[in-house]
Amino acid sequence: MSRIVGIDLGTTNSLVAYMAGDFPRVIPDADGRVLLPSVVAFTPDGILVGETAKRQLVRHPAQTIYSVKRFMGRGYEDVKAELRYFPFRLEPSQEIVRIQVGDRAVTPPEVSALILKALKERAEAHLGEPVTKAVITVPAYFNDSQRQATKDAGRLAGLEVLRIVNEPTAASLAYGLHRLKRGTVAVYDLGGGTFDISILKVQDGIFEVLATSGNTHLGGDDFDRALVDWFLADVLARHGVDLGRDPEAMQELRLAAEAAKCRLSFDERTVLTIPFPQHGLTYRREIARAELEALIDPLVAETLGPCRLALADARLQAAQIDEVVLVGGSTRIPLVRRRVQELFGKVPHSQLNPDEVVALGAAVQAHILAGGITDMLLLDVTPLSLGIETLGGVMSVLIPRNTTIPTSAKEMFTTSADGQTVVDMHVLQGERELARDNRSLARFELRGIDPMAAGMPRIAVTFLVDANGILQVQAKELRTGKAASVEVKPSYGLTDAEVERMVEESFAHAEEDVTSRLLIEARNEADTVIRATERALGQGRHLIDGDEAERIGGALATLLGVRDGNDRDAIRGATERLNQATLHLAEALMDAALKEALASKPVTEVLEKTES
Amino acid sequence: MSIKADYFEVFGLARKLEIDPEELQRRFYEMSRRVHPDFFQTGTPGEQAGSLERSALVNRAYRTLRDLVSRVEYLIQLEEGRETKEGAAGIKPEAPGDLLAEMLEVQEALQGAKADGLDEAARERVKAEHARLLERRAVEEDGLRVLAREWDGVGDGDGNREALLERMKRVLAARAYLNTVINDLGEALGGEAQNHVSHRRH
Questions:
Q1: What sign has the CA pseudo-torsion A416, A421, A411, B14?
Q2: How many domains does the structure of chain B reveal?
Q3: Which of A244, A580, B59, B185 makes a 20 to 30 Å CA pair with A465?
Q4: Residue A518 has pLDDT above 70, yes or no
Q5: Could you tell me which CATH class the domain A513-597 is placed in?
Q6: Least confidently predicted of A479-488, A582-591, B88-97
Q7: Sign of torsion over alpha carbons A42, A10, A74, A87
Q8: Does the annotation count A356 as an active-site position?
């Protein structure tokens, strides 16, 4: 399997890491910098990403997008309140957020894709080989739409996203390689825009998340804003000038506030000097750490509620936590450390660089997926309850929050009118009683139901949350045994067709030969299935009879025969037929694996024997 | 064992209610190591789908069996041959009439106290009531443990099985009523660790 990189797609900065031998390593750019500012500038001369884009913030605020992660998977209504802090304009819309840059509108996944593409290129330059597969991290408290948006961004960047992994749990993997071997761990992750708390049990290489909670709109950005508001009031009082209406001045203030906040983590006092020649003034101000702390204390306090909730959900007392790990740049702030220490009653750890640890953990997870690590396994949970809207606008929970994923739930549906062939479902995520108070994820249409009298069809719908925390829906009418097709209309996301179209457009822009690219993709997929089939046969030949082995052998030979040809449809057809031929073998192998698990001796027992 | 196995079969356990939590966790980890999708990234599409499905089954089974209350609920569902928890009406027969009346009284008192603005004295009363009901629930759960042991002792053809199932159902119903009131009291006290979801599920 080709190399899989780990990417931390952050609100403020993004990083890419890979496994170098036994330990993960972050990849620097040509100048040796590992942090890529998550900023994208749309200039008349082209698109800039990272450090160069950041320099455009003050000069071209309306065309320079930062903190786009706050908009991922969100609707206009969700973010309206904070728009006054952003210099760029959003198109009011009921659906996905669209950001206006010049004469075009871009969606958050498209902007994130540009950041991912820059990281992909950085990794390719460093490793000297193409990089097409990645594990990308998201806040643990991200809902389905936000995860899906991140996955879409990966696809738009030309990356196959093999796994969406939660940031705090990724961090725990990085720590796990070094020192965390056993015990209960709380990972407190306060980044630029999001906050997560995850409680894990670590034992024998298994990282089992017991509970998670958080706030996807709380982080360093909010501290900066508190500081900016304070500066604005101060400038108004002392100079009689309202800088709040000047986008360029606002950017200057925001960047100065961010820098001052960072300095105050190490110094007791700091001085700001910002010239505003266009307003005929120079703003000079000394600020003490205590003043900053007074401003942000209420925000830091907001992180403690989710911590207590996660502890309660994990059925643990704070005193039962063995270790507390700090992740995210905002955990450098002394006040944050103090509050965490007070809550858990112990000194938190931060041996690994809090900016890098998530990307390092993503690289570890990537290595697990590639088969490079077999003794570590992360068992994560779904952060929010998932349900459907039922009569009277009430949410009926199908999968409660903090359920270990993958997981599934089955629900029966029927029709309410004679001859009805389509059934609607509204899928929600959240903890509130009423449907309208929860997050609308998508509307699903079950189509192709045979016309029958009302109430006759018995449609079994399976809601499956995969290891990415992303929902898949399958439906089957039990009387006819027919699968119903499921049409998804995401509430705040791109449809598959839209993503497909954007991918094709990006090919066109890159002036690539779409046909040859698609042919290569088909061959790669064929190779994957060929290798997997050969391995499956090697492991499970004894589980199937001669006829079946012959059928698989035949399908394998056919695919090998067309693999080097130029007929993409023939390759795809033969790949699909080989897949079908191996379905039963796969099932048999999986069941054998479960049986083996039951027959295996307890690890401790085995260890005792080898020791004696 | 196949995807159709019940949760006890998944872990190779007899249909008994006393389960050693450490052994259950050991088997859960062991099975996760064998079927988790992480280890089938390079597998055939059939293996990937199969691992996803079995991993979901193992996770559901562990979640259900690790906790006594959900274990008993599941056992009743199995014994009654129901496909899903949907028919959970079966698990909610009448709670004992006196408990029902008592809970209504507590609820009314709470409403009254809230209407009067919940002063310090009233808060203290609510707090005491909350603590009393938590204790009461613990007693019910102890009772459930006793019944569970009894269940494990009776043989297959034993006429006591039906009666035991009924008694367990009554304890579950009582517990569900207690939970509703405990949550209401907790909410009135402004406890942060309120579980909006779980109290609705009972």
A1: positive
A2: 2
A3: A580
A4: yes
A5: mainly alpha
A6: B88-97
A7: negative
A8: no
Identify the CATH homologous superfamily for domain A4-179+356-370. ATPase, nucleotide binding domain (3.30.420.40)
**Minimum Cα–Cα distance from B197: chain A residue:** A431
Whether residue A8 lies in the annotated active site: yes
Helix (H, G, I), strand (E, B) or coil at A213: strand
pTM as predicted: 0.88
Q: What is the mean pLDDT of residues B134-139?
A: 90
Residue A189 is among the residues annotated as catalytic for this protein: yes
CB within 8 Å of A297: residues ≥ 6 apart: A335
Residue type, A333: I
Token pair for A125: 């330059």
Considering only CB atoms, B26 lies closest to which of A309, A464, A602, namely: A602
Task: For tokens 């079950």, name the residue.
Answer: A446
Residue A173 has pLDDT above 90, yes or no: yes
Yes or no: say if A87 and A250 are a contact pair by the CB < 8 Å rule: yes
Tokens matching residue A217:
């709109």
By C-alpha distance, which of A126, A96, A328, A49 is closest to A215? A328
The span from the CA of A94 to the CA of A96, in Å, is 7
Residue with tokens 């006092």: A269
- My answer on whether omega of the bond before A87 falls inside 30° of 0, hence cis, is no
Look-up of token digits 């067309």: A562
Within a domain: residue B82?
A: no
Q: Compute, in degrees rounded to 10, the torsion defined by CA atoms A544, A548, A551, A554.
A: 30
Domain holding B50, by residue range, is: 7-66
B166 in Cβ contact with B193 (< 8 Å): no
User: Does residue A331 carry a pLDDT above 90?
Assistant: yes
Cα B144 to Cα A186, A585, B74, B87, B132: the distances in Å are: 33, 44, 14, 21, 19
Residue B87 lies in a domain: no
Q: What is the pLDDT of residues A420-432, one digit of tens each?
A: 988 888 999 999 8
Q: Tell me, which fold does domain A220-299 have in CATH?
A: Actin; Chain A, domain 4 (3.90.640)
CA nearest to A494, candidates A10, A14, A74, A161: A74
DSSP β-bridge partners for residue A325: A187, A349
* CA-based nearest residue to A329, from A219, A217, A212, A173: A219
- B57 in the same domain as B128: no
**How far is A86 from A88, CA to CA, in rounded Å?**
6
Query: How far lies A60's CA from each of A70, A91, A509, A597, in Å?
Result: 20, 19, 25, 60
CA-CA distances (angstroms) from residue A306 to A173, A216, A577, B72?
Answer: 22, 11, 49, 31
Residue of B nearest to A309 (CA): B193
Question: Which residues of chain B does A311 touch, with a Cβ-Cβ cutoff of 8 Å?
Answer: 193
Restricting to A residues 314-373, those with a Cβ less than 8 Å away from any Cβ of B are 368-371
* Strand A133-138, strand A104-106: pairing: unpaired
Helix A583-599 vs helix A546-562: angle between axes, to the nearest 10 degrees? 120
Instruction: For residue A593, give the nearest of B35, B41, B49 by CB distance.
Output: B35
- Cβ atoms A68, A133 nearer than 8 A: no
- Strand (E) or helix (H) holding A503: helix A496-509
Question: Which residues numbered 557-586 in A keep a CB inside 8 Å of some CB on B?
Answer: 579, 582-586
Task: Give the burial string for A110-145 (b: 16+ CB within 10 Å, else e).
Answer: bbbbbbbbbbbebbeebeeeebbbbbbbbbbbbbbb
What would the pLDDT profile of A87-124 be if each residue is shown by its tens digit? 888 887 778 889 988 888 899 999 999 999 999 999 99
